[in-house]
Amino acid sequence: MPNTNPILVPILGDQLTRNLASLRGRTKDDTVILMMEVWDEATYVKHHKQKIVLIFSAMRHFAAELRDAGWTVDYVKLDDGDNAGSFTGEVARAIERHDPRAVHVVEAGEWRVQQAINEWPDKFACEVEILPDDRFLCGRAEFADWAEDRDSLRMETFYRMMRKKLDILMTKDGKPEGGDWNYDKDNRKPPKDDMDTPDVPKFEPDDTTREVIELVEDRFGDHFGSLEKFLWPVTRDEAEKAADAFFAERIEKFGPYQDAMVHGEDDMYHSMLSTSINLGLLDPLELCERAEKAYENGDAPINSVEGFIRQIIGWREYIRGFYWHFMPGLESDNKLNAQRGLPEFFWTGETDMRCLADCIRSTRENAHAHHIQRLMVLGNFCLIAGINPREVQDWYLVVYADAYQWVELPNVSAMILYADGGKLATKPYAASGNYINKMSDYCKECRYSPSKKTGEDACPFNPLYWHFMDRHRDRLESNHRVGRIYSNWDRMDEDKRQDYLDTAQGFLDSLTPADKGWARVVED
Ligand code: FAD
Ligand code: DLZ
Ligand code: SF4
């Protein structure tokens, strides 16, 4: 007799697509889909309230969409009385309920969750099949092949391989479209005075989202972040509307203003699609193909289109490959031995540094900040102030609605903090106040002055920059991209150098370290 018991298909909170490997080819009458809201996931760090609302609401909408399409969905809500609290506990309970002949699950995005899933074959009596997540365009094994025997794992080399493999922005004779692989040099326009960027579509909460907002206010009221406005897309339809608006209104200027920052302008020309891509609501390759079409139709210039495609098939895929390649070590790497605690103002926004205050305000209000804010304002500060990588990792993982460890950790540990010692970046992304002054309007009304180098009114980025360069001289001087900076330092007279170091030290001593309870539940 054939075994007619169903296949149990657990779908995790960031696997919200019908094109998931574990669903493809399955028949509806032979499958029970399991979706689980669990305490362990909601509290392993104290996620921004909007992040929890986004994930639970998107999960509930996706479950409804599957049921409407005729699938059997067993959905466990967080406040279901018998909730086991963990993925493993819930799968065990579902096995009791449905007596499946097998469990088919797609590998998890995160190491921590994958470790738990790896134990399922031994834990459960039925067969467990773990499938690769083929929503990513470069498989984990493919990345490992690419990385093997390479001295340097630069994103640019990886990206060219991906362009060729996917045949995106390539001419018929195998050359990069437009003649160059990378148009970054055209993508550094500072903001104009009268910048008036189109509004990003806002999706008002429906009944399902409102119910989740209540749940989150009730259970996670002490988590960071505001729920005053929650406007993220939570369904595929909404995510597609958000993508339509980006391709109609913003992609043209996406490239040139990619690195520009304006006080109070939280979206600029960015796509604001990361939350939807990471949840599985949007397909990354389809977005790149739409961008390519926009170029072919003359709707957007090559520097915008190439820039957007590079972020997705380049950076996003590379970051994911890098994560799996270097885990679990990446989590504890601290090659610059940075030991300072994260300042409290990262949680409260209470700082006179106008650039940081604005990025933190956007982070609190929207669970979002755009790339250059994450990299060159918040990240640069953490790097040159020597903040401990673990504390910075926790902060980024908590505060952004698009944050999952696979994408947060390499960006934080390797890209901004150089904690991996240079596997990802050729040099630390350290910068003085000059950079922020050039690329933003923040400094005009700041209490500090970007042109003052030392003393009370000096922009803190200026002395911190030299403090960082000085304390890491042994490691960085031999780096050919950094070495010449030390000639400038050595040319300054002794008093000037001491002034820089004293101003930086005075500023560092004035910082109040954050209460650990912001990021994690602290046991008494
Ligand atoms: P756009 O500027 O419109 O870019 C288009 C898409 O490219 C994004 O939606 C995203 O999918 C992809 N992308 C761009 N840069 C990166 C990158 N460095 N790594 C991976 N994907 C990229 N992105 C996350 O999705 N989750 C995170 O937790 C996250 N943490 C970050 C932490 C730091 C320190 C830094 C420097 C960057 C981080 N990023 C993260 C990358 C990037 O900042 C966000 O993807 C981007 O700001 C999302 O906004 P957007 O959709 O408007 O992006
Ligand atoms: C981030 C998150 C949260 C807050 N809650 C859940 C949840 O209750 N159920 C779920 O399936 N996933 C959740 N997630 C996402 C997971 O923590 C995890 O990031 C992904 O499944 C990737 O491994
Ligand atoms: Fe930021 Fe310095 Fe400019 Fe103030 S002066 S906004 S601290 S870069």
For this entry, give a set of tags.
binds iron/sulfur cluster, five-stranded parallel beta sheet, binds ligand DLZ, mainly alpha, binds flavin-adenine dinucleotide, 524 residues
Question: Could you characterize what this model shows?
Answer:
- By secondary structure, the chain is mainly alpha-helical.
- The protein is 47% helix and 5% strand.
- The protein has helices spanning 39-43, 49-68, 87-98, 111-118, 120-123, 140-147, 155-166, 207-219, 236-254, 274-279, 284-296, 302-326, 329-332, 345-348, 354-366, 371-384, 389-399, 405-416, 433-439, 461-471, 473-476, 485-491, 494-509, and strands at 7-10, 31-36, 72-76, 102-106, 127-131.
- A five-stranded parallel β-sheet has the order 3-2-1-4-5, sandwiched between helices.
- It is globular, with a radius of gyration of 24 Å.
- The termini are far apart.
- The model has no long low-confidence stretch (mean pLDDT 97).
- It binds flavin-adenine dinucleotide, ligand DLZ and iron/sulfur cluster (SF4).
- The site of iron/sulfur cluster has 14 residues, from helix 15 and helix 19.
Based on secondary structure, the structural category is: mainly alpha
Query: How far is the N terminus from the C terminus?
Result: 57 Å
Q: What is the mean predicted local confidence, pLDDT?
A: 97
Which blocks of ≥5 consecutive residues have pLDDT under 50?
Answer: none
Question: What level of helicity do the residues show?
Answer: 40-55%
Spatial sequence of strands, sheet with the most strands: 3-2-1-4-5
- Count of runs of 4 or more consecutive helical residues: 23
What about the largest sheet? Answer: 5 strands, parallel
Give a count of the beta strands, DSSP E runs of length 2 or more: 5
Report the sheet-strand fraction.
under 5%
Q: Which hetero compounds are present in the coordinates?
A: flavin-adenine dinucleotide, ligand DLZ, iron/sulfur cluster
The gross shape turns out to be globular
